């Protein structure tokens, strides 16, 4: 049933259809784009391209409305039940991706919150984009005589996802901010972030890096009870150079990300709205099940080949859920072949994978691995062919 659902969706991706001998397995870096997204960009640029928030002629008004509409689309897609599109709606700030989004929170908002002696808790072993901005904010504040302590978000020894009990013990009256990652970009694990709120209490702002969850699994800011949610549009089927920060409207210091100070990427914003429409029509929950099924096939196959080690961090959520959640990312190493070489060999067989340290914070770059990351257009046949190619390298 899922295979019948998937086939026409795969056909929506022109680059995939044009390259039947190639398997794109690097969607965690950036995803391919469906025709409908490309059409939306073309339609915008050929009917009403202008700047947003300035000018009062029809194309400028249409562009301003496009940006406001896309912001509302983001709120809806993220399950923000609090407000309509009008005044009082939670701010949505468009960025070039998650890196710029996290940096925006760190630069434009966090310093307003912090006082001398405060503490923040941030992840040390996730993507560098979710560590560097917090350290920079600390250093900037230190230069102004405001000392902030940065604590490491604790992880569970057995699974590697966040340890809510240890976090509850770590968080004290001076804990003013927590940053976390929804799904790990190397291990694919769902990091169990819904337990962070109960660990830190109602008043501590939580900022979530959702780069690897938006578009892959249902994401609800209401259920997660976070204050900032940052994601990459380009990993969620929109154009390169797109992303957004959603900020909870009604609480904390105002989030002032520059307003209309610069020219926004309006074509990219049009693509993001179209991508969210496409994902919703396809069914995000089905995308989760499809890619988890493919990832399970790959993980199971690799576990039968002694030459390979699958890296992980297995989410403790996997044990709680009926459908075993393996996400859309499988990362592994060969015992003898280096990850760069393995990447080249796999490309010679038509597989596009990522092979390096994956921008993971705190990792030795020598310590590389091969990452296979999936999206809705990938197929079981691709997984079987990949396993055949990997088996020959044992
Ligand atoms: N955080 C995570 C968890 C990621 O996987 C990535 C992309 N690899 C980023 C941040 C950075 O995203 P972007 O390239 O859109 O800035």
Automatic annotation (TrEMBL):
<keyword id="KW-0663">Pyridoxal phosphate</keyword>
<dbReference type="Pfam" id="PF00266">
    <property type="entry name" value="Aminotran_5"/>
</dbReference>
<dbReference type="GO" id="GO:0031071">
    <property type="term" value="F:cysteine desulfurase activity"/>
</dbReference>
<dbReference type="InterPro" id="IPR015424">
    <property type="entry name" value="PyrdxlP-dep_Trfase"/>
</dbReference>
<dbReference type="InterPro" id="IPR015421">
    <property type="entry name" value="PyrdxlP-dep_Trfase_major"/>
</dbReference>
<dbReference type="InterPro" id="IPR000192">
    <property type="entry name" value="Aminotrans_V_dom"/>
</dbReference>
<comment type="similarity">
    <text>Belongs to the class-V pyridoxal-phosphate-dependent aminotransferase family. Csd subfamily.</text>
</comment>
<protein>
    <submittedName>
        <fullName>Cysteine desulfurase</fullName>
    </submittedName>
</protein>
<dbReference type="InterPro" id="IPR015422">
    <property type="entry name" value="PyrdxlP-dep_Trfase_small"/>
</dbReference>
<feature type="domain" description="Aminotransferase class V">
    <location>
        <begin position="24"/>
        <end position="386"/>
    </location>
</feature>
<dbReference type="InterPro" id="IPR020578">
    <property type="entry name" value="Aminotrans_V_PyrdxlP_BS"/>
</dbReference>
